[in-house]
């Protein structure tokens, strides 16, 4: 009997994924949980196992195609069930096309699919509009059989840094009004997209479509998708939902840099990579315990400010697939060495493409070290659902007032952006000043413990 396999949600709440390659062809015999394809999502490249044992009957989508969740991608002749192999089965209702592995596929009817655009080194005529994919999502968790593999940057990257979260009725409402959930900022608990969020998008004035510019010889056009597309959607949603305020503070970190060198040479940390970001992270985690409005969430749905009892610290990382923000869960429970190890492991996983969706979600406050790029400061945009993000600038030697004299000191700028709906200027300033005071004089850390 022929069994359809629909593209599963993979537990990330995304609406589509790209088929990178097929590991099987029509006529091949496959076993249960045998890897049949590589799928690229917003988080990583995933090896997709077969939900059936049988013979590949038909491949519906070719490699390089962006497919909506819930759309059929392959079918199998499965022995041991009514119907001869190779016979044409009667059409099954959507509800009967449930894959046999937990977490697979959406039972909804197949959505429209979007063919893959040209690769990044090919010219794409500007006058050809990209079709818009219909949103298809599944609330099912990811299958235990899914494995993450090393990812090489493809022509584009997947759909988003933050996974989309909406209840089925809200998803249906969005589909009915042709609203792309990827472009919405959830105002519910933990970033949940609510009915009100969708209706605000429906009632927003439509933008006049821009006239496509003709292609010019020598220019390169790269399809916007994957991590880049999702990052853009998340940043636009955050910037136009949460009123941002950024405050700046220049700090003499000479004593902190001396402490860093002592820690690096100590036996306790000989096998651990301690960086300035590690020290800043530890100070921030301790300071958040006193300044809880910075470790909070604006719950629009319930009209509440949710202050977290835990700190899940996001640490922004530049990768070959775009910006990612791995999350160190329960950072408040970690000592300095454990925090350093967790940061290093997550950053490596993000850059190698082996990071999991769970490791990219649930952040309550974030840090971005722009100093590694030789930058003094900036105005970081809040990750969706968070109340604060701290940008750490480069350390520069410069003339500075020290003990009533001018001396050459090591100075760094801190840039704190916060959601002005729940953090006012005084609260942000006090938090930033306390972090700066400890970095200026590490002995002040005792006041936070």
From TrEMBL:
Its cofactor is (R)-lipoate. It comes from the Bacteria. Residues 108-169 are annotated as: Disordered. Its EC number is 2.3.1.-. The keyword Nucleus does not apply. Keywords: Acyltransferase, Lipoyl, Transferase. Residues 123-139 have a biased composition (Low complexity). SUPFAM superfamilies: CoA-dependent acyltransferases, Peripheral subunit-binding domain of 2-oxo acid dehydrogenase complex, Single hybrid motif. Residues 165-202 form the Peripheral subunit-binding (PSBD) domain. GO terms for molecular function: acetyltransferase activity; lipoic acid binding. GO terms for cellular component: cytoplasm. CDD domains: lipoyl_domain. Residues 2-77 form the Lipoyl-binding domain. Belongs to the 2-oxoacid dehydrogenase family. This is Dihydrolipoamide acetyltransferase component of pyruvate dehydrogenase complex.
């Amino acid at each position: 009997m022929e069994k359809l396999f629909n593209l599963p949600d993979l537990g990330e709440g995304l609406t589509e994924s790209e088929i990178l390659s097929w590991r099987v062809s029509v006529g091949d015999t496959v076993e249960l949980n045998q890897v049949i394809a590589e799928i690229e999502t917003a988080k990583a490249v995933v090896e997709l196992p077969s939900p059936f044992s049988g013979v590949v009957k038909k491949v519906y989508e070719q490699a390089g195609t962006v497919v909506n969740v819930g759309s059929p991608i392959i079918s199998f002749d499965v022995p041991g069930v009514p119907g001869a192999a190779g016979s044409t089965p009667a059409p099954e209702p959507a509800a009967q096309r449930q894959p046999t592995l937990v977490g697979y596929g959406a039972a909804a009817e197949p959505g429209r699919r979007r063919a893959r655009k040209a690769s990044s080194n090919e010219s794409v005529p500007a006058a050809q509009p990209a079709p818009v994919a219909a949103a298809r999502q599944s609330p099912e968790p990811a299958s235990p059989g899914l494995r993450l593999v090393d990812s090489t940057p493809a022509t584009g990257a997947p759909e988003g840094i933050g996974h989309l979260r909406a209840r089925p009725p809200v998803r249906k409402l969005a589909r009915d009004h042709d609203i792309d959930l990827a472009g919405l900022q959830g105002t519910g608990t933990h970033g949940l997209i609510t009915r009100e969020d969708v209706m605000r998008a429906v009632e927003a004035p439509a933008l006049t479509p821009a006239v496509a510019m003709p292609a010019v010889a020598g220019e390169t056009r790269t399809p916007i998708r994957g991590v880049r597309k999702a990052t853009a959607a998340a940043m636009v949603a955050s910037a136009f939902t949460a009123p941002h305020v950024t405050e700046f503070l220049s700090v003499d970190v000479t004593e902190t840099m001396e402490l860093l060198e002592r820690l690096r040479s100590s036996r306790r940390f000989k096998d651990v990579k301690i960086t300035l970001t590690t020290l800043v992270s530890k100070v921030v985690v301790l300071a958040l315990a006193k300044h809880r409005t910075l470790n909070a969430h604006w719950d629009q749905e319930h009209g509440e400010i949710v202050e977290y009892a835990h700190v899940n610290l996001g640490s922004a990382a530049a990768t070959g697939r775009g910006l990612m923000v791995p999350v160190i869960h329960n950072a408040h429970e970690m000592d300095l060495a454990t925090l350093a190890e967790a940061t290093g492991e997550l950053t490596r996983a993000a850059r190698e493409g082996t990071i999991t969706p769970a490791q990219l979600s649930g952040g309550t406050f974030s840090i971005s070290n722009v100093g590694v790029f030789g930058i003094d400061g900036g105005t970081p945009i809040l990750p969706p659902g968070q109340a604060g993000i701290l940008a750490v600038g480069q350390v520069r030697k410069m003339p500075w007032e020290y003990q009533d004299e001018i001396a050459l000191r090591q100075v760094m700028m801190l840039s704190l952006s916060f959601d002005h709906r729940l953090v006012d200027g005084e609260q942000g300033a006090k938090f930033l000043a306390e972090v700066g005071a400890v970095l200026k004089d590490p002995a002040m850390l005792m006041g936070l413990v």
